[in-house]
């Protein structure tokens, strides 16, 4: 029990929060009744918010324009890098650019130039970034190390070299490293019109390249071997993709910094993956998420000056990713749970109907070889007790009761006095499901050489994903049976399953069925064709 004193303590602690909320709401209501000058005297926060959202300040327009174009370009090229399984390539490039920034500053300062010129620093970052890419490819192709190991080696070595060079700069008499650390964490607020123009130009180049080479890059991401067999220049396309990654990474250093640039390349594309399976729609969604996250993050940083822009952009994109991960219509967590639940219920209903049909079969006299007695189908008044159904499978009573209730709601079963009987629709469905199960058994026995004693359980694990074209092929195996109904004879002796079977075994088989057919994504056509 919660003591009254505890409730009073919580109420006292929450009182300032409610007061602040009331003040914000009151300020919002009152703001509509005053001019901007009057609103500033009533509630300065809302005045600043309106000024930022409407982009009255020149610097705000410059920053938002720069980060928006960068977010769109990063979202597009990030879609290809994600599918190419090179999501961390941008992170390695960003860290590899650190020594380039330091060397460019040192060379420009020694030569009497402006060591902190943005074009000079970005040029040095580009050079060492390309050297880092070459190092990754060299390690991957000339050694037995995997690409992830090459990324880790290049990332750590180049970043360590950059930090060492920053220490050397601090000891120079002609210059100091003050301001260069902004490339590590980002310095969006200091972005000028020339910087935003450079970001826009690079973004337009990258977006144009992605759109013009969409077909080729898509083929490269999904099947590199097939692209090479079709005569596409795989190496050249790979170099172009890497070049676009380098461009986005280098110009994004000033906006979000070398540590957080990877977020703009990965998070929007990963979030878009939860909503669609089509590459074109994924690119559009990724670009929209990148632009929206960059704009909202930049505006939030302008409203709250103490918050860094790069971190706010990443946090907003991360919020989009979390929402997409939970609510995505194709790969979201909730939709996958819903599909899994629907599949489990469908499997339970199929097992229930087939169990009842087999009980009806066992209660009928033996038919001639290759035939099933027609009265097994015609006679629908035969009842099956719940106890009999419990003995046939290792499900719990609660699970069986739920499956029966759902079948009753679907008008497939009638229930009375602890027994069940099939309706006309239920008998037809039960016959179809039994036929499908036995087709799988015949297939496994004929082609997979599965032992007759084990085929029932193996067929149970995969029968729920039987494709229509596979059924058509298996029907040819029934020509020599001459059945009067559409249900073949069971290829094995029908036996009741022992109640000693643990529910875990049944759950394992069910999970295998879910894993096979639970996610009808991009791989579904391949499974059906196979």
TrEMBL record:
Which keywords does UniProt give here? Answer: Cell membrane, Membrane, Transmembrane, Transmembrane helix, Transport
Report which superkingdom the organism of origin falls in: Bacteria
Q: What does the record list as coiled-coil region(s)? A: none
Start and end residues of each stretch annotated as Disordered:
483-530
Membrane-spanning intervals of the chain: 7-31, 62-83, 92-112, 118-139, 151-169, 196-214, 226-250, 256-275, 282-304, 310-329
One family from Pfam that matches here is ABC-3
Cell location: Cell membrane
Supply the InterPro entries for this chain: ABC_BtuC-like, ABC_TroCD, Fe_dep_repressor, Fe_dep_repressor_sf, Iron_dep_repressor, WH-like_DNA-bd_sf
Transcription regulation as a keyword?
Answer: no
Q: How does it sit in the membrane?
A: Multi-pass membrane protein
Which residues are in the Iron dependent repressor metal binding and dimerisation domain? 423-480
Q: What PANTHER family does the record tag this protein with?
A: ABC-TRANSPORTER METAL-BINDING PROTEIN (PTHR30477), METAL TRANSPORT SYSTEM MEMBRANE PROTEIN CT_069-RELATED (PTHR30477:SF3)
Belongs to which family? Belongs to the ABC-3 integral membrane protein family.
Q: What is this protein called?
A: Iron chelate uptake ABC transporter family permease subunit
Q: Which organism is it from?
A: Roseiconus lacunae
């Amino acid at each position: 029990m919660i003591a009254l004193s505890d409730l009073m303590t919580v109420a006292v602690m929450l009182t300032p929060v409610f007061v602040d909320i009331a003040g914000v709401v009151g300020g919002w209501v009152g703001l509509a009744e005053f001019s901007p000058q009057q609103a500033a005297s009533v509630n300065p926060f809302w005045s600043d918010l309106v000024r930022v959202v409407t982009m009255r300040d020149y610097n705000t327009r410059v920053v938002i324009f720069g980060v928006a174009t960068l977010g769109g370009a990063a979202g597009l090229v990030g879609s290809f890098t994600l599918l190419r399984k090179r999501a961390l390539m941008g992170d390695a490039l960003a860290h590899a650019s650190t020594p380039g920034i330091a060397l460019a500053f040192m060379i420009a300062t020694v030569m009497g130039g402006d060591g902190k010129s943005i074009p000079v620093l970005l040029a040095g970052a580009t050079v060492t970034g390309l050297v880092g890419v070459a190092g990754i490819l060299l390690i991957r192709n000339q050694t037995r190390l995997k690409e992830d190991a090459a990324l880790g080696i290049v990332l750590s070595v180049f970043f360590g070299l950059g930090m060492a060079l920053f220490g050397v700069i601090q000891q120079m008499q002609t210059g100091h490293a003050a301001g260069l650390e902004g490339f590590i964490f980002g310095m969006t607020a200091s972005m000028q019109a020339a910087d935003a123009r450079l970001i826009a130009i690079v973004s337009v180049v990258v977006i144009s390249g992605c759109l013009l080479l969409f077909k080729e890059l898509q083929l490269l991401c999904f099947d590199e071997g097939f692209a090479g067999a079709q005569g596409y220049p795989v190496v050249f396309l790979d170099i172009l993709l890497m070049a676009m990654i380098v461009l986005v990474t280098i110009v994004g250093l000033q906006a979000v910094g070398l540590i957080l640039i990877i977020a703009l390349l990965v998070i929007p594309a990963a979030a878009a993956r939860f909503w669609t399976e089509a590459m074109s729609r994924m690119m559009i969604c990724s670009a929209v998420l990148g632009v929206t996250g960059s704009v909202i993050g930049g505006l939030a940083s302008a409203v709250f000056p103490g918050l860094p822009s790069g971190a706010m952009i990443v946090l907003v994109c991360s919020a989009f990713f979390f929402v997409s991960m939970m609510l995505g219509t194709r790969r979201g967590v909730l939709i996958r749970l819903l599909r899994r639940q629907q599949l489990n219920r469908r499997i339970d209903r199929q097992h229930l109907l087939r169990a009842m049909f087999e009980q009806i079969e066992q209660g009928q006299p033996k038919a001639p070889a290759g035939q099933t007695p027609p009265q097994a189908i015609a006679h629908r008044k035969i009842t099956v007790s719940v106890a009999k159904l419990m003995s046939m499978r290792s499900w719990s009573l609660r699970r069986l009761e739920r499956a029966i209730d759902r079948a009753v709601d679907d008008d497939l079963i009638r229930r009375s006095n602890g027994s069940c009987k099939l309706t006309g629709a239920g008998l037809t469905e039960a016959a179809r499901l039994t036929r499908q199960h036995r087709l799988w058994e015949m297939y496994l026995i004929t082609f997979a050489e599965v032992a007759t004693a084990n085929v029932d359980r193996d067929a149970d694990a995969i029968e729920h994903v039987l494709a229509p074209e596979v059924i058509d092929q298996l029907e040819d195996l029934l020509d020599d049976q001459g059945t009067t109904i559409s249900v073949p004879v069971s290829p094995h002796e029908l036996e009741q399953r022992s109640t000693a079977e643990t529910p875990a075994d049944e759950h394992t088989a069910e999970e295998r069925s879910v894993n096979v057919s639970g996610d009808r994504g991009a791989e579904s056509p391949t499974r059906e064709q196979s």
